[in-house]
Description:
Order of helices and strands: EHEEHEHEEH
Radius of gyration: 31 Å
CATH class of the domain at 2-66: Alpha Beta
CATH topology of the domain at 2-66: Alpha-Beta Plaits
Shape: rod-shaped
Largest sheet: 4 strands, antiparallel
Strand order of the largest sheet: 2-3-1-4
Number of strands: 6
Amino acid sequence: MEKFSVTGMSCAACSARIEKVVGQLPGVEEVAVSLLTNSMTVDFAAPASAQSICQAVEKAGYGAAPATTAQAPAAPAEGEETGEWKKVRTRLIASVCLLLPLMYVSMGHPMAGWPVPEALMRKYVDSSIGQRTPLGIYTKEPSENTAEFSAA
Length: 152
């Protein structure tokens, strides 16, 4: 039995296709493909070789190499971030920066009574889709337009 490293698999159908292709090679007795570890274990005899197995997998559209020659990705040094974590951190910071002003304006005044700039507290503010949104109903002092909204 020899172990191979397989690349390019993304679903169970991929691993089943690789098992089928390698299983049809002459001399191959047993094939086991693991999608989670991106590996394949093959039990083969004389007519089949590691090179022919790798060629069959590559012909099917995937990559394969014997596990002894396959190089594992290098682990990042301590304190060094990978590209994926940098993206996640950047998106988190941007989301929080956009969330805080939005929460202050939308929830601060009605719930906590925090001061809001007068420009945001006009009776009507045009929204991005062209509709008029009543904001006067959120003020503490009643106005002549709040009655029509509460009475409806």
